[in-house]
Amino acid sequence: xxxxxxxxxxxxxxxxxxxxxxxxxxxxxxxxxxxxxxxxxxxxxxxxxxxxxxxxxxxxxxxxxxxxxxxxxxxxxxxxxxxxxxxxxxxxxxxxxxxxxxxxxxxxxxxxxxxxxxxxxxxxxxxxxxxxxxxxxxxxxxxxxxxxxxxxxxxxxxxxxxxxxxxxxxxxxxxxxxxxxxxxxxxxxxxxxxxxxxxxxxxxxxxxxxxxxxxxxxxxxxxxxxxxxxxxxxxxxxxxxxxxxxxxxxxxxxxxxxxxxxxxxxxxxxxxxxxxxxxxxxxxxxxxxxxxxxxxxxxxxxxxxxxxxxxxxxxxxxxxxxxxxxxxxxxxxxxxxxxxxxxxxxxxxxxxxxxxxxxxxxxxxxxxxxxxxxxxxxxxxxxxxxxxxxxxxxxxxxxxxxxxxxxxxxxxxxxxxxxxxxxxxxxxxxxxxxxxxxxxxxxxxxxxxxxxxxxxxxxxxxxxxxxxxxxxxxxxxxxxxxxxxxxxxxxxxxxxxxxxxxxxxxxxxxxxxxxxxxxxxxxxxxxxxxxxxxxxxxxxxxxxxxxxxxxxxxxxxxxxxxxxxxxxxxxxxxxxxxxxxxxxxxxxxxxxxxxxxxxxxxxxxxxxxxxxxxxxxxxxxxxxxxxxxxxxxxxxxxxxxxxxxxxxxxxxxxxxxxxxxxxxxxxxx
Length: 669
What we know:
Blueprint: E1 18-20, E2 22-23, H1 28-40, E3 46-49, H2 52-55, H3 79-85, E4 95-99, H4 104-117, E5 126-130, H5 134-140, H6 147-164, E6 168-169, E7 171-174, H7 176-180, H8 185-206, H9 214-220, E8 221-227, H10 231-251, E9 265-269, H11 282-292, E10 303-305, H12 318-334, H13 348-370, H14 374-379, H15 382-399, H16 433-447, H17 451-465, H18 472-481, H19 485-496, H20 517-531, E11 537-541, H21 550-561, E12 565-568, H22 575-584, E13 589-594, H23 599-612, E14 620-624, H24 628-637, E15 641-643, H25 650-664
Parallel strand pairs: 1-10, 2-3, 3-4, 4-5, 5-6, 7-8, 8-9, 9-10, 11-12, 11-13, 13-14, 14-15
Helix pairs in contact: 1-3, 4-18, 6-8, 8-10, 8-13, 10-11, 10-13, 17-18, 17-19, 20-25, 21-25, 22-23, 23-24
């Protein structure tokens, strides 16, 4: 019997999804070499990671960029960097995703200009700009401008690509980061769709797109989602997403073409769910999470990128990324997954799961819309508070053992791992000389251009920003004149202003049911009495450009529940601002959170600042993704404690903070 003729088989295999790895570090030239190697290994698309200065609109020589250049992505300061980044890679034939958000218009302008220089017809260029700014206010923190101005930039990009780059996905609605910030599946679907509604409403209301072309807009909207290890629930979530998206686009925007209403999404599986403890367990987590977005043909991702097993330890090496790519290739080409129709059609269990998520997500969506939309929900702090509370509940379940994390809160006994054996470099190291080279490069670029042309382009950009004119043409003029990333963003900062998002702490739930918290409260209160102060005061600081604030916020919530008075001013602070706050608020302890890898630059800057301010006695603790060798260096520099992801018990961390305060004041432990 012909195996291909078996009942239920598709007449031909479904085509595989676009396979990517999220990559970029050090410099444009180094990243280009990595791209070429990955493409040669069978990767079918590019996913560009930009460093934090680029994502937040700063050049490498800006004060806030110190220690951040080239660490979590590639630095891109001007057109020359993009030429080097894609040298020898034909952009007309490539599908490129760019995680860039606030400066998405700028990077798209750079990308399109380089593609045109290569001789590419822009109508052929395919790819995606991750341009969902709402989740930046809630999770990643790489926003620049206020929400309304940010939505205006997104609408302008959509209108431009509809006209000039019709195969490009101009916006990527990202529920990925909502899940990392604590969202339940219901919240993830509801909040992400509320963002999509805000984007589509902004395009419709801008007057740049005729009503009859809204279907063309809808079909280019893509989503970027997260997939956790509860992969059955993840399958249901994706089917629920598709059902609600079909309903919204048909009923709210009148899109009759079913093909245009199709829910299109790419996925990166859950990086923050990977563990530092027994990191080899991350392999099976990644595989299960990949299944959640590939098993169901009717809700299958069209692009997948997987993290590496060691991302909880630091920056993955090329070999680690290759391993993740091979996981996709084995599933797509060795297994029979792509040979069958949807495996869950008619499943009563799956139907019930999907219906439950649809019902709950519709309630969340309606609540946000009744508030006036997602911008209002951001500005009032409703969305951030809801996510902080959900993440606190998730942490509580992990701490009390309700949610099992193998190797972390159960089955912690282990043999030494050969993957992280002594003498083996388990992660990629970024050369400290990268930042100096990038700084010299951008200064050389500025010196070699026509200053008058730059001034004229920036003047036009500011003038257009003060009107309702689409800003893409002015941005392209800036690209051609040689304007830098920091100058483009700086000009718009002058018009739009900068934004400080709500922290979400005020409405966050506490650690109800934590039996150990009472004892910590007693230690906090007792220590305050011994010091003769009303309450112990903790400053939680986020130095540099790292915007991943989930951990810092959870520490702040638990410390507050334990009786600390918490000073938390949000993300993206200079060392000087943190020192000034510590002195002015007369705190007893400074806690710094750094997840970008810049700890060896950011933390000593704060320590030096405290000494210069006469508060070298003030204890400092640090939390983040910090290799053991770096932790030793920080302790040698004067840091009292270093916490990493393996320190998952928040109440235990708070108890240790009390010990640090007591030690620094000569009190008995």
